[in-house]
């Protein structure tokens, strides 16, 4: 994976705008280099690449259970896998996106997420898939606003991704 540099936004088009540039810390498939995680927690939308290894700030200290029914007071959080790279020879832009819900019961320090959904959507994203058909419209609107705020990345995004989020 990639070590993430959380310094201020730089001028390098693309990756620095989402604070995704970094040093390669161990061997990885080139497709994984542009992978990132964007979380939508209520009205808060943020990048947390710890999610790639199930160690986002929201997952720390949480024991994940096998059934969502085990949670008494869960909060729904949407995790989006997102890839950034060169799209059709242009500058770096958003290439692929997929999302899935995760549920956290902070009071009980418990959580639930479908590992199959997480792993399968990550795999599809690194292969270039754009699919957010399972995501509620209000969540998509928050994601879109967040992604559009990184204008250079949005301008050079894959057309299909822009169209899906603009719908």
Can you give keywords for this protein?
seven-stranded mixed sheet, alpha/beta, 22% helix, 167 residues, elongated, 4 helices
Model description:
The chain is α/β, with parallel strands linked by helices and 167 residues long. The protein is 22% helix and 27% strand. Strands 1, 2, 3, 4, 5, 6 and 7 form a 7-stranded mixed β-sheet that branches. The longest helix is centred in the last third of the chain and has 12 residues, at 115-126. Residues 1-17 and 20-28 have low confidence and may be disordered.
Count of DSSP H/I helices: 4
Low-confidence stretches: 1-17, 20-28
Evaluate the radius of gyration: 16 Å
Structural class: alpha/beta
Share in β-strands: 25-35%
Residues in helix, %: 10-25%
Question: TL;DR?
Answer:
The chain is of the alpha/beta class. It is about 20% helix and about 25% strand. The relative contact order is 0.18.
What's the helix and strand layout?
Layout (H helix, E strand, L loop, with lengths): L34 E7 L2 E4 L15 E2 L10 E12 L5 E14 L4 E4 L1 H12 L3 E2 L5 H12 L2 H5 L3 H8 L1
Parallel strand pairs: 3-6, 5-7
Antiparallel strand pairs: 1-2, 1-4, 4-5, 5-6
């Amino acid at each position: 994976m990639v070590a993430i540099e959380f310094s201020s936004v730089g001028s390098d088009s693309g990756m620095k705008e989402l604070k995704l540039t970094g040093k390669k810390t161990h061997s990885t498939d080139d497709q994984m280099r542009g992978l990132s995680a964007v979380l939508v927690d209520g009205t808060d939308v943020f990048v947390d690449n710890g999610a790639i290894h199930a160690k986002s700030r929201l997952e720390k200290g949480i024991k994940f259970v096998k059934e969502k029914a085990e949670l008494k007071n869960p909060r729904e959080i949407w995790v989006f896998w997102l890839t950034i790279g060169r799209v059709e020879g242009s500058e770096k832009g958003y290439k692929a996106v997929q999302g899935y819900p995760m549920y956290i019961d902070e009071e009980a320090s418990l959580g639930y997420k479908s590992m199959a959904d997480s792993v399968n959507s990550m795999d599809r994203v690194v292969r270039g898939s754009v699919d957010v058909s399972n995501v509620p419209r209000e969540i998509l609107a928050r994601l879109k606003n967040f992604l559009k705020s990184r204008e250079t990345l949005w301008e050079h995004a894959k057309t299909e991704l822009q169209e899906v989020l603009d719908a």
